[in-house]
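Quick question: who can interpret this fold?

. . .
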Amino acid sequence: MGADRSYAYGAAAGLLGDLLLGDPHRMHPVAAFGRAAGHVERALWHDHRGWGALHTLVCAGGATALGAVAGRAVRAVCPGPAASAALTAAATWAVVGGTSLAREARAVGRALERGDLTAARARLPHLCGRDPQALDADAIARAVVESVAENTSDAVVGALVWGAVAGVPGLLGFRAVNTLDAMVGHKSPRLRRFGWASARLDDVAGWPGARLTAVLAVLAGDDPRGAVRAWRADAHRHPSPNAGPVEASFAGALGVRLGGTLSYGGRVEHRPVLNGAGRPVQVTDIGRAVRLSRRVGLLALGVTVAGRLIGRGRGR
C-alpha cells in the first residue's frame, strides 16, 4: 500500500502544481519530446504505415521506458516513499496541462469580450488547429468550448487514468502518444499513411479517459440529464470515437450546441451537430466551460487515485 499512497500523494501534488504554476514558458518537457519526435520523424519518414508504426514505437516506447527507468533509479537511490511521490508529482505536473488550457481559453474569451476579433483569431491556434481567419466571433467561441472539452480529456483526465494504471511510465507514455497524434496523426497527404499508427494508438489510449471525462461532465455540469441525453443521442455521430462522448456531454451539461462546419488546414469539414436542442455558444460560455473542465479534472484525480488504491488492495 506504501507505493500506492506515494502515487496518490504525488499525483495530487502534481495536479496542484499545475493549478498553481501552469506550464513553464521555457524548457517544457513535452516541448522537448516534440522536438525529439520531430527529429525521429525526419529520419524515418516514408509514405508507408510500417515506417510510421516504427516512428510511433520509438517515440512512445522511448517515453514509456524513460518513465520506467526513472522510477527504478529513484527507488534504488532513495527507497523511501517520499522520493517516489516526488517523481510522480514531477511527471504529473509535466504531462497535465489544465491550467494552460484554461489560460489560453480565457485569453481568447477576453479578446472576444472587448470585440477584438483580430486578437482572438491570433490566439486561437494556441488551442486548436482550425483556420481562424475563416471564423467569426460566434464560431471562435464555439471552437474554444469544443477545444476545452476535448483537451480536458487529452491533457488532464486521460493522463490521470494511465498514471493510475501504470504509474510514471503510464503518465509519460500517454502524453507521448497524445503528442504524436497532434504532430502526425492528421490526414494530410504527407501523413495519411505515416501517421496512421499514432492516430490509432491515440484512439485506443484515449478511450478510457474520454469515457471518464464524459461521466464526470454529467456529474459536474449544470444539466446532468441534458448531458446524458446529448451523449447518448449524438456522441456516435462524431468522427472521433473519443472526442464524440466528451464534446457531446459538455454540450449537454452547458446547454449549448456544438459541432457544425469547420476548417482545418484549408480542408472544410461538416461535422454533426451535438445537442441540437441547445442554444448557440456565447462568449460567456467559455468561462463556464473552463470551470466545468476544472471540476472534471479534480474529480478525475479523486476517482483515479481511489481506483488505484481499491484495485491494488483487492489484488493483494
Remarks:
- The CA atoms of residues 229 and 252 lie 7 Å apart.
- The beta strands are 256-264, 267-274, 279-280.
